[in-house]
Amino acid sequence: MATNLPPQYFEVEKKLKTAKSAQEKIEIYEELMSIIPKHKASEKLQAQLKTKISQLKSSLDKKSVTARHGSSTIIERSGAGQVVVVGPPNSGKSSLIRSLTGASPEVGDYPFTTKIPAPFMMKFENIRIQLIDTPPVSADFLETGLAEAAKISDGLVVVLDAASPDAASDLENVTLKLGEKKIELIPADGEVPALVPPFRKRTIIIAHKSDLDPGGERLAELRTLFQSGPEFVPFSSAGGESADPLKRRIFLMLDIIRVYSKAPGKKADRDEPFTLKRGSTVQDMARAVHKDFSQSLKYARLWRESSSTYQGSMVNRDQVLDDQDTVELHL
User: Is the whole model's pTM more than 0.70, yes or no?
Assistant: First the structure.
């Protein structure tokens, strides 16, 4: 009996060649597991993938630096950015992460299902963004590892149960507990200073389980009560709602651009872009390709899809780049 793997399986499998960490490989294997047709012919392949996942997780356990009571769990950064997902008990954080990543974090209808911070990879178009699932935040509890992860993250996603009558107080508790650790929630397009206290973190607030608030009354109430803070975005992990718009919001919050490199006379590799902070220049791009290139760079040629001006035009090293620019470096 043939396994009959769909084309999507082989596209995802290609990512293994460029995976940079054990955690990223785990996420790819879990994505492959979700794609494989579930029948007798695929049982051997499923078993092989499960073994690989188990081996990788075992290697991570040996390498992880974990301590209790005052220390934190150090999670290796991976992908184009690191976003920490926080929220009160039973807000649906793990369900949301499953919708965004296709992975399988532990999900339960009881509080504190998630015990320690755990990383997952979210695919957005041609890049991957790391999401960190965390233990819930309550009025009297904030896990130390969560606070440490939030401080070094590139942004936060706060998940609330939009249908809960306690949503407003839950958000206040999250804000206050993070504030005690000098972590401040700001809008997704807010200005982020140097990494010193207070740690101002770009944030999106997900009004989760929005299908249980069909009229949007509780969402409207939340927006009225917290007008000056981060944006509220309604979403439901149930009912088949597309997660693509939410993925784009998270990508935009990171304030990064994707830049493609090409060699003279060849096509650009658009499957593996370089990710740079918005405002980066051609010289920054050269440094990302190789640390010595920024010094030996003479000029570059630039292609920009949204502009007729830049279609192979010669530019200097100070040229500011846009998302999805293609750059040909000349040394």
Answer: yes
Domains in the chain, please, with CATH? 7-63 (no CATH), 82-254 (3.40.50.300), 256-330 (3.10.20.30)
User: Quick one: tokens of 305?
Assistant: 């899809």
Q: Tell me the mean pLDDT in the region 82-90.
A: 94
Band of residue 60 on the pLDDT scale cut at 50, 70, 90: low
* Pair 65, 74: CB distance under 8 Å: yes
Phi then psi for residue 194, to 5 deg, are: -60, 160
**Statement: residue 96 has pLDDT above 80:** yes
Start-end of H helices in the chain? 7-13, 22-35, 43-63, 93-101, 144-152, 167-180, 217-225, 244-254, 282-289, 293-296
Q: Which tens digits make up the pLDDT trace of 244-281? A: 999 999 999 999 999 999 988 888 888 889 999 999 99
| Of the candidates 242, 261, 154, the residue with the CA atom closest to the CA atom of residue 204 | 154
Distances (CA, A) of 320 to 15, 23, 256, 277, 284: 29, 33, 13, 11, 9
